[in-house]
User: What shape does this take?
Amino acid sequence: MRVLFLLWLALCVSVGARQRFLLLPLDNRPCNVLFVRQLAGIAQADVVTPPDHWLGSWLNPGRCERFPDWLLDHAKPGDRLIVSSDMLCYGGLVASRSASTSVEQALKRLDVLTQLHSRGLHLAILSTIPRLYLRTSEGQAPFEAALAEWATHASPGQPGPPAVPEVWLREYLQVRQRNLQVLLALEALTREGVIDQLVVGQDDSSSQGLHFVEQQQLSAQIASDGLASKVWLGSGADELSMDMLAGQLAESAGCHPMIELEYSEAGSERRIPPLESHPLRSMVGDHLRLCGAREGAGEVKLLIQVPSDRPFAMPGPEQRPKSYQFAERIRQSVVSGRLTAVADLALINRMDPYLAEAVVDRVPLTRLEGFAAWNTPANALGTVVAQVVVRRLCERLAPGWPIQQVKESARLHLAFLLARLVDDYGYQTIVRTQYYPRARGLSPNPDPLTSPYLTLGRQVRVQLIEWAQQLYRQKFLGQRVELPGGRGPASLGPMSLQVVLPWPRLFEVSVRLDVSLRNVTSVLQKVNR
Assistant: This one.
């Protein structure tokens, strides 16, 4: 009897246990920390990160000397680790572009990975191939644009641009070579079995340039070592932690959602999107694979608005009919009962305003499985696919969850959807365009007490919060929603919202949105009484 009791107790503990991830993020921006935690919460998993003030924050590198001990002290049996090598080796994504870390220092900082592997932990590494625009030092800064333009068309060994002193060309190439050496060392650790999964993203790029040569060199080594199943090499950077989390959760649960793709323009998937290095179709397929999803007719339809011909500019009136037609396709998919997700890739770092207007007016947004329109095509696409995957996991697992867990998962999913609307449309398309010109030329290292960003940040927060609250009251408050796993209906209660500037710039905001859920049945019972 005692043996049976212990078996029963172990089963109860395992059923109630939450999957735990240790995350050393790319930096402390919301997309690399907050988004990952929110998506994990939808699947009732936990994400643990180092203290925020240790992490890389724009021009301030992370505390590299602290990360090995933190990882070793906090890793527990059963944990899964997602480690950014850019943070581990250099102090973050921006710091990985700097010449301040030697190749010897960077390689030495990889030693902790072998120690973690010796404990039997699942180890996934996120790395990036640098973009062409690199500020390797303050002395090189005046030549950053000229070097990037040269590197777009250069080949190894080609003379540098005549206007750039040799010392800065040499520093630029040394940083690229140092980062490539670290990537090849990580590939070797994967071959040796130390690393279980290596994900290599390409930071902002194009279809040609020195970065493409580095991709080919790394790809050839991966093929030579037969590591195609353990190494992912593709577009993007800031969305990849979310994708890795979703893929590992999908693998653990044995749940690989089928996603049917529908593009806004036939044939457009063969073009290379702006800031990417591969055709849209292969970029989408890569992100589906990393997230643990599969392409094909099945559970979810993903509608993709493809990049426009002028992705860096606000669209003119001629775009309105196309956007409205695409919104109508979204609406028809949703009201027909089809599980639907949307990736708006039309513009860089903002949502198509005409699509946004039509979606807000005509589409039941809270019934979407995923939605995003932020920054680059890879960023937005990867975010949507990750949300779809964790949402499908939730639907599969929710029937066995206590009702409070079901409501928490539903609340986090809805909050994430609405936060994307507030951020990608409300801030990036509406508010930021009004204030961004006033931020040009401001110091990237402002005095924290006298910074003009204090005033700008306050104005941004007030305007965005007022806009979001009004929209929520008009379109969402009291709206009926279905809880996952067929656990009954609920309705949207009041929303809480905080907005902060995570870095001293207006490029992004941190939208910390939460919603409350009211049980429809209990509300109706109160009314009947």
